[in-house]
Structures are given as structure tokens and as C-alpha cells.
Give the backbone structure.
Amino acid sequence: MIRTKAVLAAAAVCAVAAVAACSSSAASPTSTDSGSGSGPVTLTYWSGFTGGDQATYVALVNMFNATHKDIKVDMTVQPWDSIAQKLPEAMASGAGPDIATPDYNPGTIRQYINNGLLAPIDQLLGSGANQVPASVLPPAVKQVFTVNGHLYAAPANWATLELYYNKTLFAKAGISSPPTTMTQLESDAVKLTVKSGSNVTQYGMAIADHDTIAMWPIFIWANGGDIVNAKGCSALDEPQTIQAVSTWANLINKDDISQVGLAGQDADNLFSAQKAAMEINGPWATGEYTPAHVNYGLAPVPTGAIGTPVTTASTVPMVLNAKSTHKAQALTFFAWWMSKPVQAYLAEHVGYPPSRNDMADYPGLNSNPWVAGFSAQSPYAKFYLGTVADFSNVDSNIFSPAIQAAERGANVASTLQSASAALNSALNCPS
Amino acid sequence: MPAKPAGLAPADRGSEPDVVRAAAPERKRAPTAAIRRHWRRWAPGYLFLLPSVAILLVFVAYPIVESLWMSLHNWSFFSSSHPFVGLGNYDTMLHDPRFWNALRNTAIYTAVVVPGQLAIGLALAVALQRNTLINKFFRSIYFFPVISALATMGIVWKFLLDPDIGIINHLLVSVGLPDIDFLQSTTWALPAVMTVGIWKSAGFSMVIFLAALQDIPQSIIEAALIDGAGPWQRFRRVILPLLRPSMLFAAVIATITSMQLFDQVYVMTSGGPLFHTDTLVTYLYEVGFQDFRSGYAAAISWVLFLLILALSMLQLRLFRFKEID
């Protein structure tokens, strides 16, 4: 009798454990779904905006849901690395969301496109009610999101880089205005580098070389060089590229204008702590430098040998799942996202310029002086490795190591030639 | 003496009905009473074990088998097809300079950190073996890094080693030495990571050796003392051999932990500068979760497993002892 009770007790414990293990425990960290029903079409949306701008994105989705009774967007916000690990498998198996932001790097969409996971969204462009005129998209956005003649993503945001400069440190060094040419930038960086013996107490500039929005490519582009040429092959061994990298590597290695091996956040921290007088960065940095009481100003990135401005573009792609059964509703959401009121709201609350280039005179947009400045750089912005599907490998294993080696005094020409061979191999180009 | 019951003597076996003897091999035998008793006795235990075994099968055994299967394929999260490549991933590894660099860094780390933490742990155990209040306090101090999260400690050390605000460089400059950007130096980055590794784990070895030292009979020490053995001789000839089993345990655990180094490298250096602190696990993480080459990452993990297995068996062989020791 006692043994029978023991067996029954054990079986009961097993049953409870099995039910607990099998019960659904998936909880979205942030979800805008207010409930499922048979009424409106529900669009599932995986978004990676977990930072200070998350509240703005959530508010916009709620706004869309309130104004569109037939469509409900259920947005789940999760970290970028979580999306990167889960999204490909989910889409491939047919369990993925209708729309998603796969990565903050726009080149990533090419891996998805190559595996047939994304649907083209050419119907987004046009003059109809739920469409966006093709001419309003920044040229760089259209280029990076167009593959084999088809548009595959809409921009969830848009940003360019400008030169942040510390007005107080400039005044101390006797420099009255920010540099307008690369030559001036080089000499100002040296002048603003302060040393105490062999220790650097103030860097002229914070230049990150890994885990960052691309700063180094700006020096290369401004000199007429490039990382990947128009044919999609390596441009690292071109003379203008080697010259630009040599100039700035020497400034870092010999004149100590910047620390070696800075990650993006490290560079931001140096400028924020007022231990660096200049930094090339995006609009998101204003949210860090203003509370840090840095007396900073913003100026366009100085012009180089090419004579025209050039800066880095940044955008996050919003893509449509090829297996989605709500493509029409997704395009409606994309068109609404690209509308002027929404872009103005985004610019006002996040500080990014609008993702369309026809809002220069939009009422209230220029109330934020930073937005106007970043927006003015849009025509000159280009993407770093924007058309390279294997972005992570090229950036982590080829370009960044080559730059770091140059910063540490390696022979720039031979370093870049080796990197060029490796890049051509990665891009399936002839050496 | 009672008489034997009739018909039960072994010699009577030949008188059993033929139909019974002929049918027995073909009819399925019913469970014997002993087996039924066994199941009645142990069934609750097996049922209680079932959930844990199921979890182990699903979350441990199955992923292990699946990873071996993946290592034989060109497996990517992006693609629904995974072509079989046999030992292709392992062949790629042989010609991958990043893999050999990561293996070298991992080997150097293990070769330095394991003896380092054992030696320091043993020294601390010998110094703190008496059960005084002050010794108990210091034992806690030295054990504290062991229970702290590796990633958290990595962040702390990253600040301590910072060239601008770190206290280490402040101390160096205060005694007239130049400051060093440890984590950005191709010379100093790996030694810095190894130092943190020894600092983190020495307390664990100390605790193992403390327990072993407490178990050494005092009479053996006294006998050695009577025989005229000095302190070093007592330690070298008496205490150390008796610590061998504990040393084996600590060495095996330390080796396994060192070969799997990830957290503190990921936090402190991300494998840099220029891959000088890249380890097998940080490399396979990059290959699997950033490059999405899951098959190749699985192959690296299996090579790591085989290396750890080989090292552990080598240590068991080297530390072998007989009871007469």
C-alpha cells in the first residue's frame, strides 16, 4: 500500500513537471499587442531598437494601430544579437515575423536576399495613396537597399556623421573655428593633443577603429580612395587609400592624436570625458554629450582632396518576410512610416534627420538645430560596406585588423596590399 | 528430520510431462517474481528521475549529438539546405590561421594559468591552514573572486587597467614607470588576461588544498619531525605526495576551465588587439553567432572537446599513484 502511494506520488510529480516544462513561457520583453482577435490583420514585427529611442518607436507603432483599424502591428523589441541569431532560422522555417529589422548594418539584408528570405517591396515606391515617391529616398538608401534592380527594405531610420568639437578645448588651444578641410583637421588634431611628459592628457581626436560607426572610411573617401570599388572588388591597395591611411596612421602612431585600438564606445567616452577635443559621430551622441555638459558644437566633416564633402551614412533596414501572408498590410505600414508627419515625429524625438530628402522646409523640423545639420549631409553620405553581404567577416577580419596594424606602426602599403588580397578573396574577385 | 516431499528430487526431472518440456523454449517467459519485486521497489525512484533525465536528454545529450551532425555539414542559419561535407569543416580548420592562432593563445593561457593558480592556491592554503580568526578572514578574501561572475570581474579589471583612469597605471607612473595600455598592447594583453585568470581562480585551488591539508594525519608530520626533516623536506617529501589526489582534481578542473576561456576575454579585449587574446571559444562564438557558419563552429567545438579529453587523460596518467605512496 505504501509502495503504491509512493508510485502514485512519483507519477504525480512527473506529470506536474511535464506540464510545467511544456507550458508556453515565451514572454516578449516588449510587445505592443493588445490582444488577438478575428478583426484586424495582425502584423508581427521584430525590432532591435532597445536603446534610448525604444520609447519613440513603441509610441509610433501605437499611433499606427490607433489610426488603422484594419491593421494591428505587434512589435517585439529585442537585442540586435538576439534578432541576428533567431531571425534567419525563423524566416527559413516559416515561423518568422512579417516585418523585421534584421541588423543595424544594412549590408546584412543581402544574406537574407541570397537565401530567398525577403520579399521585394518595389510597390512601396510610387505616387499612390499608400506609396512613397521614389525621389524622396536618399540616394545612398536606394542604392544600398536595391539588389538586382529590386528594392528590398525601407529605412527604419537615417543618420549621417558630423564633426563634434569641444568649444572649450578649442578656445584653450587658440582655435577660433572648426576645421573645414582635412589639412586643417590634421593640424588642429596635433595642436589639440596635450602631453605631460610621455603621457597624453588630452587627445586631439577620438578615432575608433572597431565596433563602431565607420570613422576611418571617411578619411579614405575624402582622399579619393575606397574600401570596395564600384565593381564590388577591393580598393584597399589603391594609392589614394594607402595615402589616406598612412597620413592618419602616422598622426596616431607618432603624434598620439588618438588612442590606438579604440572601440566606438571608448571613443565616445573620451569625448564625453573631455579628454578628446574632436570626434566624428552621429546624432545619437547628442544624447550622451549634452547630459555630460560638454560644451560641444557640430560641423560638417571637413572636405578632403576630392573637393566635395563626404561622410558615413547609417540606416537600419525594415524588411518584409518572403513568406508573409500580409504583404499588402506591411507595405501600408512602410508607407505610413515614410510619411512626413511620422518622419518629423521621429526626428523631433530621436534627433535623427528624416529618412526622406524633401522635408527641408517642414514646419517645426529645424527647431532642433542638430537635425538640420545632419540632414544637410544626406546628399554626401555613403555606406561603409553597404553592398557587402559578408559584412562581419570583412569588417572584423580584414579591414579593422589592417587599420589597427597601421595604427601600431606596420608598413601601411604592404598591410593594405595583404588586406586587399584577403578582401578580394572574400568578395570572390580576382586578386 | 522431515522427509523430502515426494516428486521433487532432481532425479525426478526426467518424469516431467513432455508437452511442458517441448513448449517452454517457444512460449514467452513471464517476468519472474524477482523482477516484479525490483520494479515495485525502484519504480518511484525511476519516475522521480524521469523529468531530470528527460531534461538532460533534450538539452544536453541531443545538442551534443546534433552538434556532431552539424559539424559534418555546411550549416548556416540563413539557409534551409545544409549540404553534407563530411570532414570538410575539419579540413578547413587545418588551414585556418585564425584557428591555429586561437589554439596557440588558448594553450599559452592554460600552460600559464593552471600551474600559476595551483602554486598560488597551494601557497595560500599552507599559509592559512591554521584555524585562526584572521586566517578565516583572509580565506574569505581570497575566495571572493571565485564566486564573482567572470564577466563582471573582467569589466572591473578593464577599468583597473585603463591607461587614463586605471589605478594600475597610476601606481606605475607614481614609481616612475611609463604607463602601459595593457589591453591594447600586443605584448601585454595576453599576460594581463592571464593575470586576471590566476587572480580569479587561485582561491578555488586554495579551498581544495585547505581541505586536503586538514586530512593529513598529524602523526605523519610528527614522525617526519622526529626523523629530523626540516620544513621544506616535510613539505616536499611528506605533505606534497599526500596532496596528490587533490592536486589531480584541481589540475583537471583548472585545465577544463582554462581551455574554455571566453567571458573575461570577450569583456576585456574581444579577442584583440589584432587577435592576440583570441581563444578557441571566442573564435567559435564569432564563427557561429556572427558569421553564422554553424557547421564550422560545431567542428571547432568538437576539436576543443577532444583536446580537453586528451589533456585530462594525460593528467590522470601523470598524476597516477599507488596506495603505497
